[in-house]
Amino acid sequence: MQTLVKKILLTTAALTAAPVLLLAQPTAHYVPGVEGIKGASLPPPGFYLRDYNVCYFADRLNDNHGDEIKPADPSAFIYANVPRLLWITEEKLLGGSVGVDALLPLQYTSLKANTPGGPFDDSTFGIGDFFVEGTLSWHKPQADYSLAYGLWMPTDDSSVSNPTRAGLGYFTHMLTAGATWYPDKDKQWSISLLNRYEFNHEKADTSITPGQAWTLEWGAGYSLSKKTDVGVVGYFQYQTTRDSGSGASNEKDQVIAIGPEVSTVCPLTGMLVSLRYLREVSAENRLQGNTVALTLTKRF
Description:
Layout: H1 2-23, E1 46-61, E2 75-93, E3 96-103, E4 106-115, E5 118-127, E6 130-139, E7 143-153, E8 172-181, E9 189-200, E10 213-223, E11 228-239, E12 254-265, E13 272-284, E14 287-299
Antiparallel strand pairs: 1-2, 1-14, 2-3, 2-4, 3-6, 4-5, 6-7, 7-8, 8-9, 9-10, 10-11, 11-12, 12-13, 13-14
């Protein structure tokens, strides 16, 4: 009898936590896994269109210990198409090329889960938050370097109560620093580290300010030819500070993922095509799932 009561209490507690965690997805504006093997390297001067196609699917929701909340029984699917315009100018600052870029996500989200109030089942398609950025990039014989400052600006497509809406409803300042190192003179091997750090403002229609977030994306690649690279990529995203304000959660979220990538230049169009799959191997206070990302880059 005591075992049965304990199971009921644990199940009730898990279901009570589930909607809070689902509504908290995600802390960071930046979606990890969208940059790849040489993710810290920006292209040479020119005008580029980069189109990100990202699918995320998950059927597991974890608590603050990384354990699965089985009673929640979630099913999540997200597809985002994110066109990004990049202009790397001929202007120099501190020896680096000055660049600007902007993007606007288009996102479909479907989410199902059990909650104390009954099953949650909803899906929406909408416009995510707008992003603009200024960059500096350097290309040395054995390494590339990049620095950036960007601003996420909320659209009206956000909701306090519906986690399927595309917008997050708050401004975010994002700092970026990264480097790609080529250990050999022929640059066949590459090791890349790309850091993003986010400072969030108060979320609309609440008194809650989401905590700060750090994202590290890494890649290790090998060039099979001048046009084709293969390798392993991964990401680590961690909420470094707790949410603040009335009703804010005391928990912080994090996730770790790893997977393969192949990248090649299409000879007919000159378009760079990158395909990667990342499996999340650990997560706390958030969904744990899989990311498939197809990135198309064209210079004009």
